Amino acid sequence: MNCRICIVLVVLMFGMISGLSGQDWQNRSVVQVQIDVSQRAFLAVKSISNLRSETPNNTNIFAGVGVRGKSWWLEGMVQHQWRAGSNQWMLDFRFDKQAGRWHWYVEASPFLTRKAFYEFVIVERRTWKGVSVGGEAENNQQIGRDVIAIGPRASRKLGHFAGFDVSFAGAVRLSPVGGHTEPRLYLVFNRRFALTDRK
């Protein structure tokens, strides 16, 4: 599937910050599986790996349950994060809503192993050729130093691979508090299984 428009948008966004110092180039690879156990309830399993040029890499595994409606889903999970010198446990709550051309995503994670709270928000609108544009914010409130990052993003569905729906996104997040400028690329694999008949 042709993704030239998406690639051009990402290159333009990355070009906006090419002259800035302190950049933390990042790649986030995501595998998400939802297993339907009834018409509305499902089990959720996720894996997220964050590769970064300035800040420590981390790997995250999630497992939990969820419920869905016609255009939304809500998940509650337990998360374990590994990174150099740190292993953290968190609760993780995610809400996803598709409203026409608009897509809303909100994630909140209270830490269980230290005093901290994480949230991540995406708002985007589908425009042309399947490309969605919008913005995202990722914040970590913690003792000593909060970290806030916010900026524009563009995304596009790429198609199917090995039974997974594959999508790609790029974002450039500025950090007015506590962090680096963050050019980030996402590669996301989603799959939904059913243990019961769907309607």
Describe the structure.
The chain is mainly beta and 199 residues long. The protein has a single domain, classed as Porin, CATH 2.40.160. The protein has one helix and eleven strands. Strands 1-2-3-4-5-6-7-8-9-10-11 form an eleven-stranded mixed beta barrel. The longest helix is centred in the first third of the chain and has 13 residues. The chain starts with a helix and ends in a 5-residue tail after the last strand.
Write the layout of secondary structure elements.
Blueprint: H1 4-16, E1 26-36, E2 41-52, E3 58-68, E4 72-83, E5 86-99, E6 102-110, E7 116-126, E8 131-142, E9 147-161, E10 164-177, E11 182-194
Parallel strand pairs: 1-11
Antiparallel strand pairs: 1-2, 2-3, 3-4, 4-5, 5-6, 6-7, 7-8, 8-9, 9-10, 10-11
Provide a short characterization of the protein structure.
The chain is mostly beta strands and 199 residues long. It has one helix and eleven strands.
Instruction: Tell me the distance between the termini.
Output: 29 Å
- Given this structure, which CATH class is correct? Mainly Beta
Q: What is the level-2 CATH architecture name? A: Beta Barrel
Low-pLDDT stretches = 16-21
List descriptors.
199 residues, mainly beta, Porin, 1 helix, globular
